[in-house]
Amino acid sequence: MSLTVKNISVTYNPINQSNTFTSGDFISGQVILDVAKDTQMQSLSVKIKGKAEVYWTERHGKTTVVYSDKEKYYSVERFFVREDKTHGNEMLKDPSGQPYSSVVAPGRHVYPFTFQLPLQHFPPTFKGSVGKVVYTLETKLSRSMRISSKDKAEFHYVPGPDVSNPELMAPQYGSKDKQMKLFTSGSVSMNINTEKMGYYLGEGLKVLAEVQNSSSRAIKPKYCLYEKHSFFARGKRRLHTHDLLKEAGEPIEPNSKKTVTKVLSIPPSLAISILNCRILTVEYRLRVYLDVPYASDPEIKFPVVILPPQPVSGATNRDFGIWNQPPGSNMYPNPPPMAPLAPPLHVVGPPGQFGAPGYYGPPLNSFPDPGYPGPRGPFAPPNYTGPPGQFGPSVSNHSDPSAPPPYQEYQLYPQLPDHPEKS
């Protein structure tokens, strides 16, 4: 930072206790500029951005190959000060409705702004080992013959829950039979049911297992919930898997049949499932298997979708944060107070006392939905060519006639290639 510009920062005002934003929300904040003497500005701007990116390297012999890709969701910039006046629709005005001056006196100067987030559903904020989805506010001060001064603040975006697809709330069913060999004789079979595919953080995942042990040894049902992070670039895939929780049931004695119920608690700290991003995915699997001594374990896998949290009933931007402060209190001492509620971004409205006045620009929801598929680029992930049912659990061709219908593939999002180690 130069001797003239002591500090520049961009901040936003939380609208709820979890400090998250969702589609259609207004995000208001301020650019704060501290200068030591009279300063001439070429431009001062604020920008809101959303994007996903992946980056990793691999060694091939003596060569290091870089794999990277980006997916942009939106980028809108507005100017408080700009020498080029030809783009008047991008200019913000001061609280009195007048243009901001390009010359500022020594001291602190505050520039309020308001954006409205798009109505489309974008991937939630996420940070993984070699990829991330980030949403930011950025400010930039440009002066003649000087290095630009910048600042950036990330905000947490969470899309609204989409439970309109009936497959998310439909029961899942799978069965498996295995004939024992070598050190164990007989056979084992299991029929597994789960109540649904989509779950909220902290919710209980109920598993109903009917196990027929016709072998010569006791067996034990076991349960494993694990995550899959996939990153795509230049036709390559980088996979990260991690077991989140493991639990075991009671042993089932030889030549017996038993029905057991297990409830697994979804950890509240998990990332929301990401299935609508071209360059990265966040998936979850439930693996139910029988621990058979001296034999390979028969298993069934079910996809699990972690849904965004449900909004509080009747809650609005006014229900949280600075609007709830008691008289005379100051929850956020640095930023100035905001306007009660900003007008829509696509209209010209009267200037508020502290909110972004005047013209707000076109609504961000005019941007296209990032959902895949679309025109396939050179770095799009490869087509899924596995046999039907590979995305979900294996389903036996011989099931009880009274059992619920077999699990069908989850078709809400495009299918992805599976992995030989963990599907």
Automatic annotation (TrEMBL):
Region described as Disordered: spans on this chain: 365-423
Biased composition (Pro residues): 370-385
One Gene Ontology biological process: nervous system development
Pfam families associated with the record: Arrestin_C (PF02752), Arrestin_N (PF00339)
GO CC aspect terms: cytoplasm; plasma membrane
All residue ranges annotated as the Arrestin C-terminal-like domain in the record: 184-311
Source domain of life: Eukaryota
Gene3D superfamilies documented for this protein: 2.60.40.640
Matching PANTHER family: ARRESTIN DOMAIN CONTAINING 3-LIKE-RELATED, ARRESTIN DOMAIN CONTAINING PROTEIN
Family designation: Belongs to the arrestin family.
Descriptive protein name: Arrestin C-terminal-like domain-containing protein
Species this chain originates from: Cyprinus carpio
